[in-house]
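tmp note - Myo-inositol-1(Or 4)-monophosphatase
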Amino acid sequence: MTLLSQFEIQEIDQTVLLWLNDIRQKTIAAMQQRLDVHEKRDNRDLVTNVDQDNEKFINDKIRHFDAEAHIVSEEGFGDHNQDMNGRVWFVDPIDGTMNFVKQKTDFAVMIALYEDNQPVLGWILDVVNNVVYHGGPQIGVFANQLRLKPPIDDNLSEGIVLLSGARLLYGMFGYDKIAKAALGYRVIGAAGPSFIRVIMGQAIGYSSKMMPWDFAAGQVLAKTLGLSVSDIDGKALDMLSSNIVLVATNRAHRDILTLHQS
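out:
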């Protein structure tokens, strides 16, 4: 249980919303300019000047606001955490960089706060549509100021499932069986927009290989809304390493685990 009071949590939530408003303005402005794009591991793993600038901006805000906390972030400006003791912030400055560069849509900025490994708050900014999905177990989940209700607890066969395209293509983790069992399947190519579709009830579930900054915010929001979040074997996620993440309605989650294990 978090040591923070509900008032403190609401204050943090409103503070981060102000940061994200600034980040959105900076990101939209940068999209009108020529992006500085580089490869990380290969030509499908991209980083831009916006990823780096956003991370520096957010990390600087966090360090001034919560000096004792640690930061786990994508582009190397955070800390090298060995545990989840105390307050830990997760930062994904541009989630879905390929989409950001090539499509100019279906990307997000994500921030999350955990305390002693327990979820406190999460924020997913849909930059293009100017909507922040935010909240946590103490205050509920909101799309901007609209409080969200839990999605309908449908089975896998009753909804659309979102999957990692590369792993679906090669039949990994039973994704081919999962796609066939669902009413339909889609590939979005970014964690934040995929989590948004699940918490909004537009998709029955989502699974992909993710790093902690990819799933930290989405896990807070999904669990607060009563959705199931685990790795593909049904175990709790390791917050400091990569996981094959599965978020889904409770019924679809059981259906997917059964297919994966069969």
